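Here is an idea for our session: we take a single protein and study its fold together. To get us started, please write out a protein record for me. Start from the sequence, derive the backbone structure tokens from it, and show both lines together. Go ahead whenever you are ready, and we will take it from there:
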Amino acid sequence: MVRLVCWNIAKRSKPWHELVEMARQGEADVALVQEAGDPPSELKHLVRYDKEHWNRDLFDRWPLVVQLSDRIEIEWLRQIPPRSELGERDIGVSGIGTVAAARVWPRGRPQDEFLAVSMYARWIKFHPLTGHQRSVGASDVSAHRILSDLSTFIYDDAAFSQHRIVAAGDLNMSYGATGRKLSMPQRERTVWDRFAALGLEFVGPQVPNGRLASSPQPDVPADTGNVPTYFTRQQKHAAEANRQLDYVFASRGFHEGVTVRACNGIDEWGPSDHCRLMMEVGLG
């Protein structure tokens, strides 16, 4: 199997140390990170990633696919603007700073290759012509751009079972939302529906693969399967976390060999406002 960790590290240094230690312990081969800056200089020789697409004039943090171990081989896809025709090693990216992708396979087993995708649905402000001043904007704008970029890797519904894609990250929305305090449920529902239409199955994490929230989760039904993966500045601590923003999807059929767990226990949360999602991808 290949072990992956998905983590929004909020441009902090300590998570990089955690990732290197996880690799040393054999707990992770690949990291799908979001809001990543450069790793500390003393760790740069221990992690490998592609940053050719970085444009520091636009953003100071990015999604990355990071190689942590020598158990796997990896080939990063070069990010370019969307084109009508893409090369084998390209990914057309319509939302700058929203996605990173790489081909991953266990060393010596190219037949088990899959596409690993780190997703970050950035908040996008509403256009001034709307006259709307919602402070954070909308994340479904970026999520749909991510899905458009992934669509070029997916043929049609007759071929869904032939695809091998794992896409994980911070989508900044609540799965199954019905309330409108923090969500726009009708718009967000189009994102979840579009994942399904592309043959990308929702893998989780959901109960029981993560600690339940200690207080009601906003905007979702009381019987939600969501598990908290993020705490706010007002909450300040993992014990108070009560909303899920981080998710994993995998190609239909292939998803049956993918498991995910939210490392959201108070003692295992880690040095970010998001917890880690641990994934295992079965071979064959």
